């Protein structure tokens, strides 16, 4: 199973569409973790599972998503309701409630991926306004019976090896 995960594009349509089109045929699912600042009818979000962020207004997107893809349960939220800039504890409780294998979130604009209590947590960073990394970022998560990997890319599609991680499955 492969998932493209993007967040915090903050109104960028051309760049967002370019990234999605680059990987659309290589992945099983696409998630946007909020703050797209676009409407659900925007061409850039065609075929994308999107949650609402704190900069998304209206009711176009749900606050969170639970999606099962290829036997992997994803919990997706922007993160602002879970205080992710300070702690991951409330987010982890919600992920546990949904029995998520992978939890995707944004809000902090900081690209990271880590395992805790056998749940993979992914923040793809921001393609427009990155923090703690000089380039805009997004990622692809690959999940199979032996390994889970998260490969980070800059907006030009170039791999960022220092952010990329892999975890052996138990």
Automatic annotation (TrEMBL):
Cofactor dependency: a divalent metal cation
Pfam family name, one: Metallophos_2
Alphabetical keyword list: Metal-binding
Cross-referenced SUPFAM superfamilies: Metallo-dependent phosphatases
InterPro entries with a match to the protein in the record: Calcineurin-like_PHP_lpxH, Metallo-depent_PP-like, Phosphodiesterase_MJ0936/Vps29
EC number: 3.1.4.-
Domain Calcineurin-like phosphoesterase: 1-145
Keyword Ligase included in the entry's annotation: no
Annotated GO MF terms: hydrolase activity; metal ion binding
Parts forming coiled coils: none
NCBIfam families reported in the protein's UniProt record: yfcE
Record-stated family: Belongs to the metallophosphoesterase superfamily. YfcE family.
Name under which the protein is recorded: Phosphoesterase
Organism expressing this protein natively: Halalkalibacter krulwichiae
């Amino acid at each position: 199973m492969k998932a493209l995960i993007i967040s915090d594009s903050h109104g960028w349509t051309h760049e967002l569409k370019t990234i999605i089109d680059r990987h659309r045929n290589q992945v099983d699912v696409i998630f946007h973790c909020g703050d797209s600042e676009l409407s659900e009818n925007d061409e850039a979000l065609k075929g994308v599972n999107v949650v609402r962020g704190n900069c998304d207004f209206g009711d176009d997107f749900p606050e969170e998503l639970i999606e099962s893809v290829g036997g992997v349960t994803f919990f997706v939220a922007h993160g602002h309701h879970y205080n992710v800039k300070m702690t991951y504890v409330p987010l982890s409780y919600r992920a546990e409630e949904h029995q998520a294998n992978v939890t995707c979130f944004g809000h902090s604009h900081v690209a990271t991926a880590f395992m805790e209590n056998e749940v993979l947590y992914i923040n793809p960073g921001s393609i427009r306004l990155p923090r703690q990394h000089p380039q805009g970022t997004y990622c692809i998560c690959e999940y199979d019976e032996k390994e889970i990997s998260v490969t980070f890319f800059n907006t030009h599609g170039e791999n960022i090896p220092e952010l990329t991680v892999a975890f052996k499955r138990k």
